[in-house]
3-phosphoshikimate 1-carboxyvinyltransferase
Amino acid sequence: MSSHGVPMPMISHPAGPLTGRAEVPGDKSISHRSLIFGAMAVGETRITGLLEGEDVLDTAKAMRALGAEVVQHAPGEWSVHGVGVGGFAEPEDVIDCGNSGTGVRLIMGAVATHDFAVTFTGDASLRSRPMGRVSDPLALFGARAVGRAGGRLPMTLVGASEPVPVRYVTPVPSAQVKSAVLLAGLNAPGQTVVIEKEATRDHTERMLAGFGAEITVRETEEGREITLTGQPELKPQEIAVPRDPSSAAFPVCAALITPGSDVLVPGIGLNPTRAGLFTTLREMGADLSYENEREEGGEPVADLRAKFSPDMKGIEVPAERAASMIDEYPILSVVACFATGKTHCPGVKELRVKESDRIDAMAVGLRANGAVVDETEDSFTVHGMGPQGLPGGGEAQARLDHRIAMAFLIAGMGAKAPVRVDDAGPVATSFPIFEGLMGDLGAKLTRVNA
Ligand SMILES: O=C(O)C1=C[C@@H](OP(=O)(O)O)[C@@H](O)[C@H](O)C1
Ligand SMILES: C=C(OP(=O)(O)O)C(=O)O
């Protein structure tokens, strides 16, 4: 079920070879930021390759509600006429961010240093996720938040009328928390400093610098320290959004586990804060190569070529790598079923507060399809079954989580028997063309009645 629909069950049947070219959509993290930063610049930002998934479309609506002019000109081609830092207007209604943690947390940051109140909500998944991790640091700027028990949405944020700059050490490895503080800092006078002990994706730092903000990053004993000078005039940009490595993960992993496959996934951003899955797969012995390596918009980019890999081995995934592949653990746990030996993933407590509890969702769904998975509060282990792979034949619950739905649909392609997913609707939040794209490669996905 998407935030507005009925459940859409889907069955993924064991597939023949998957072959061809998989042009995945634009990066979700960069798409949200293009719209939000564009809305805070003075003048017109033009965007190509924007991800038109539900999460990003909800952010576009929110930017309109705050006073920016956001226009779609053609598929993927958008413009945002920004209102300048400090220029947002009080929205007339509640802001509904649907399924998107990134959307709600970044927008909460962006409005926290404006002198008005905004009420935020989302779908059942987003309403279950913790927002205190954002409202706590925003209180340091002078904002006040009232939400449901446990810091859940709906939540009303009363912005600071006289914001002060903040120094904040993030207590969890989260680019959303870091970004919320930096966005609030944009409209506070003086320098806002965020320190993160573990580096998380750095799109906010890179893009704000591109928009002309004064932002510096240095390594200190405490961690990675980011200093932003408040109240800049952000200059509008031309942004070409690179293709999303988190979406590329699905056709890549499908090829690795499906006999005879050879798939090319062109133009994928390999920013080191995002590319942990591909490093892990190569360590496991996957036949995954980077072709035509180049730079685009200051980011490393390559075409990924993935081939069926019957000789993968289970590995210990370093905990330090977790942030750089945090959204990819569901699909990694599927690939791990097809490797020989155990794959152990420590340091992944954050998976418990995503769109679903992803450790539990994967463990339960994989077990229902014949795998052995152990879990602790902050880790899990998949007992690989070697090239004979996953038996399949079971159902998995998507739990309003796009990555869980897609991971199990990919599992069915390499499994011995079909895998049924109770609801493929959430896939549209980040990868609206998934069904057609995988079908064109040779996957057999069928929609069934609820
Ligand atoms: O900043 C971002 O764009 C994101 C940060 C990550 O969340 P956390 O900040 O909660 O780790 C990630 O899981 C999410 O898909 C996108
Ligand atoms: C965690 C994710 O997204 P968000 O936090 O933006 O809902 C994701 O896309 O895997």
Summary: The pocket of phosphoenolpyruvate (ligand 2) is lined by residues 100-102, 327, 354-355, 403, 430 (CB under 6 Å). The CA atoms of residues 264 and 305 lie 5 Å apart. The mean pLDDT is 97.
